[in-house]
Each structure stands twice: as structure tokens, then as C-alpha cells.
Amino acid sequence: MTEDTTDRFCRQCGARVNEEDRFCAKCGAALKVAAGS
Fold first, then answer.
1. Which sign does the torsion angle of CA 9, 10, 14, 20 carry?
2. What are the Cα distances from residue 4, in Å, to 12, 27, 28, 29, 35?
3. What are the domain boundaries of the chain?
4. Backbone angle region of 22, left / alpha / beta, with phi > 0 → left and psi within -120 to 50 → alpha
5. Integer Cα distance of 11 and 20 in angstroms
6. How would you classify the pairing of strands 16-17 and 8-9?
7. Nearest 5°: phi and psi at 27?
8. For position 35, what pLDDT does the model report?
9. Is the full-model pTM beyond 0.85?
10. At CA 21, angle to CA 19 and CA 25, rounded to 5?
11. Which end of the chain, N or C, is more open, meaning fewer C-beta atoms within 10 Å of its C-beta?
């Protein structure tokens, strides 16, 4: 079984973030959202 999600990481602090997150839960940095999603 494999999940259909890809790991994303905050560019500021390196914390793992969810694909749908707009801000990092650890440092609060704005995350880039992929266009068309």
C-alpha cells in the first residue's frame, strides 16, 4: 500500500508539511501552493 501524497517540506525550517497546508505549522512561513491544485 502506498499513499498518493508526496512529502513536502518548509523551505524556511525544513519541517514536514501537508500538501494542502498554506503555512508551516512549526515556523509559520508561507508555503508555495502548486498552481492548478
1. negative
2. 25, 26, 25, 25, 18
3. 1-37
4. alpha
5. 15
6. antiparallel
7. -115, -10
8. 59
9. no
10. 120
11. N
Q: Which residues of 2-36 are buried (b: 16+ CB within 10 A; e: fewer)?
A: eeeeeebebeeeeeebeeeeeebeeeeeebeeeee
Phi-psi region of 9 (alpha: psi -120 to 50; beta: other; left: phi over 0): beta
Q: Name the residue type at position 11.
A: R
pLDDT at 3 over 90: no
C-alpha cell at 24: 508551516
